[in-house]
Amino acid sequence: EDQNILSETEIFAAAEREESAAAWKKYHWGTPRDARLIERLMRLPRLNELAQRPPRMKRTDDGSRAAENKKRWWCGTGLQPLTESDIPDDDSEEQKPEAKAWPIWWNSRHRFFTAKTEPEGLIVDECPTYGSRPQEVRRTLAPELTRPPLVIVNKAVTKAYFSDHPLLFQDDFQGVAGPQRDEENLLFLAAFLNSSLAQYLLFHTSANIGIERDIVRLEEILNLPFPLPDKTINPQLSQRIIERCSVAMRQLQTELRQEVIRDADGMRRRTQRIIESCIAEYFGLCEWELELIADTVAIFRPSSTPGSLDSDKLSTAKTSNEPHRKAYAQTIVKTFRAWSRTKKHIWAEGCTSSRSNLAVVTLRLGNRSKDYDESHMDERVEEILNGIRENAARDNGKVFRCLRGFAYYEPDRVHILKPLNRRHWTRTAALNDADEILKRMIEEGGWGV
Predict the structure, then answer these.
(1) What digits encode the pLDDT tens for the residues 204-221?
(2) In 258-377, where does DSSP find H-type helix?
């Protein structure tokens, strides 16, 4: 079940679109359900249809230029300060090539956002000035990218902020700036980049996250779906959603400015819930799609690049508990009920074996509904396992397939056998298992369901 089959045609087509990394990456942690969701969202207009990089700077530019934009917004990476390696060492015998430094066009009073700047809300309010920092930088920043309304996002796309005043930012951040008439749209972009949906999409499509370092290239951010209201099915509803989201973000900022703050963390959590609700409605996310997103953000991404095998973040390898398996069973039962025409009740029961590190969830049909119940019975699990071995044997029992996850079908029930590890007992696993079981049931005549 850890193997995926990729279509050669799909890979070549993605390469022609310059999206080959995303085409490969979505199969790394993604399931068939994830592929369906990603494919649907990626049909929407992308952010790169709205934003482009400013023209190259000249060393004589004084920050007053106003370049013509053929799209709608500007985008780019922040300024890069000179490093110690760029400065020649007079005491060194080996002469280093002098870096091509850029003179700064801004003054010391310009606000300057760095990785150490931590705004309380999602809107940049207080920010240090550039001050007495060096008058030359290794890479400059186009003035079009410093003018509000402006959105800046860190390279891991875990923090995004909106600014309605001029702002310099360092190369730890990437920015999108636009005209004043797009203030609410850019506020909504900041909300989107802070949402679980953006985290989900970047985890499954960016080249580095979940494999190496948490770094997202600007081109990968621009590849995210981001339709403006006039590109959606219901422009009026979409506009109202953006307005509701903007009001919540500005209200948070107003509350955080108050001298007496009783529960700042609670205010931020409340605003984030509003943002998540607005994003879900704007992109038309249904219940099962939200479950995929929640599992990816809470379980799979933290487990993807652990520091060690003992890391607390490696939750996928830890042993599942009964609430995990209950949530799995409830999801798979709910999915079957949505498909079924039978008047009978579908319910599930569980059985675990610590001796074999396996658990079995059995789906049944009955005349009355039953809540999920679980027992610990080593013998029962091993009895089911023996039945599976007999059915999996080939060549008169001389050859066996290696099985870790398995569905064992009987005339009136199905047993789902899995290791106890957490990764096998998520709602994402339940949705994909339900799809596979339904496919088998259709092939077998549906068992009357």
Answers:
(1) 999 888 888 889 999 999
(2) 264-282, 287-295, 301-304, 322-339
Give pairs for 435-441: CB < 8 Å, separation 24+: 435/32, 435/33, 436/407, 437/332, 437/336, 437/363, 437/407, 438/336, 438/339, 440/407, 440/409
Q: What is the rounded CA–CA span in Å between residue 184 and residue 275? A: 14
Percent of the chain exceeding pLDDT 70 equals 89
Please tell me the pTM assigned to this model.
0.88
pLDDT in tens, 404-421: 567 777 777 888 888 999
pLDDT at 158 over 60: yes
> Which H/E stretch holds residue 359?
strand 358-366
Q: Counting beta carbons within 10 angstroms of the beta carbon of residue 36, is it exposed (0 to 12), middle (13 to 18) or buried (19 or more)?
A: middle
What are 123's strand-pairing partners? 162
Amino acid at 423: R
Cα dihedral 217, 219, 220, 225 in deg (nearest 10):
150
Determine contact, residues 123/150, Cβ cutoff 8 Å: no
DSSP state of 42: T
Sign of CA dihedral 170, 174, 179, 183: negative
